């Protein structure tokens, strides 16, 4: 049935049309934007969860003996605080490893003024008042300072929301642009084959028969372009992922898309094909009614 309805559309035009390439570029941009928005959301959730379940206390006292006394006092107070599951002093080697991205590989005992760091893990069962804990810590160890990561995490989360909204806007604009391109292509095709369509009308062909030919054509264009765009986007994501993994842990690596969560990418070519076919059907049928 579809083979007979396609006979009035030139095969050469179907094979050499630029529409699949345009749809491929559109879906490439859409895939990257959508994946980026979802990855930022899930990555920030994982990253912020790990940060909000941990606190850091630094004891910055110049005298080593006094620093040791204050560290022991702060550690004892933290362990006895409800809501704190564990508190431990980081070894100097661990602190140097944390500073290595900025200071490079420094040997132990380099006489650097490095504060003592206490890693605090929350039990997650009760709410901890960070401000009250900081005040108690100051009374116990004047040289100790609590870092609960909340101040700068709030700014990062606000920035992430703005980026996600921008990426969502890109996805919406790409979809609207694709619809506009399909509408333009359909109307151009109708104008090109107007004489053939009028002859088919005289032979008794219904509008449904004619529109089905365009449905199949644009379904094919959408599927081809969708597969091309997703393949290019998948290759780009793979390259970005490999480059980011070399940068180590942090927000960038935490925001990388997880392979198990990208199964929905296989649905995008089908969605692109459906969108182009439905747009073509509505456009063609409306235009055919105007020809009557």
Question: How would you describe this structure to a colleague?
Answer:
- The longest helix is centred in the middle third of the chain and has 43 residues, at 150-192.
- The chain has 292 residues and is of the alpha+beta class.
- Strands 2-3-1-4 form a 4-stranded antiparallel beta sheet.
- The chain contains 11 helices and 4 strands.
- The chain is rod-shaped, with a radius of gyration of 31 Å.
Offer a few descriptive terms.
292 residues, alpha+beta, four-stranded antiparallel beta sheet
Explain the layout of strands and helices:
Blueprint: H1 2-5, H2 11-16, H3 19-52, E1 54-59, H4 64-79, E2 84-89, H5 92-103, E3 116-122, H6 130-140, E4 144-147, H7 150-192, H8 194-202, H9 207-245, H10 251-254, H11 268-291
Antiparallel strand pairs: 1-3, 1-4, 2-3
The averaged pLDDT comes out at: 77
Share in β-strands: 5-15%
Distance between the termini: 24 Å
Rg: 31 Å
How many individual domains?
Answer: 2
Largest sheet: 4 strands, antiparallel
Number of strand elements: 4
Strand order of the largest sheet: 2-3-1-4
Q: Could you list the spans in which at least 5 consecutive residues all have pLDDT below 50?
A: 1-7
Helix content: 55-70%
What is the number of helical segments per DSSP (H or I, 4+ residues)?
11
């Amino acid at each position: 049935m579809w083979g007979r309805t396609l006979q009035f559309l030139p095969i050469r035009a179907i094979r050499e049309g630029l529409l699949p390439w345009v749809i491929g570029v559109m879906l490439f941009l859409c895939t990257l934007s959508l994946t980026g928005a979802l990855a930022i959301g899930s990555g920030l959730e994982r990253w912020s969860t790990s940060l909000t379940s941990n606190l850091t206390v630094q004891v910055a006292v110049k005298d080593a003996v006094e620093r040791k006394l204050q560290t022991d006092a702060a550690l004892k107070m933290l362990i006895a605080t409800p809501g704190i599951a564990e508190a431990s002093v980081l070894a100097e080697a661990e602190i140097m490893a944390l500073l290595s991205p900025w200071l490079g590989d420094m040997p132990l005992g380099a006489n650097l003024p490095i504060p003592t760091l206490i890693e605090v893990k929350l039990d997650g069962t009760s709410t901890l008042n960070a401000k009250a804990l900081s005040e108690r810590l100051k009374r116990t160890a004047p040289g100790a300072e609590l870092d609960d990561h909340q101040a700068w995490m709030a700014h990062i989360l606000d920035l992430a929301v703005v980026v996600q909204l921008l990426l969502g806007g890109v996805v919406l604009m790409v979809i609207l642009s694709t619809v506009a391109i399909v509408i333009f292509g359909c109307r151009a095709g109708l104008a090109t084959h107007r004489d053939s369509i009028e002859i088919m009308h005289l032979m008794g062909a219904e509008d449904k028969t004619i529109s089905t030919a365009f449905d199949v054509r644009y379904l094919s264009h959408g599927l081809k372009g969708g597969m091309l765009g997703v393949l290019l986007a998948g290759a780009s994501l793979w390259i970005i992922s490999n480059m980011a993994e070399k940068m180590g842990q942090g927000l960038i690596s935490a925001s990388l898309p997880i392979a198990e969560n990208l199964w929905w990418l296989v649905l995008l070519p089908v969605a692109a094909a459906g969108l182009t076919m439905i747009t073509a059907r509505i456009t063609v049928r409306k235009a055919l009614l105007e020809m009557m």
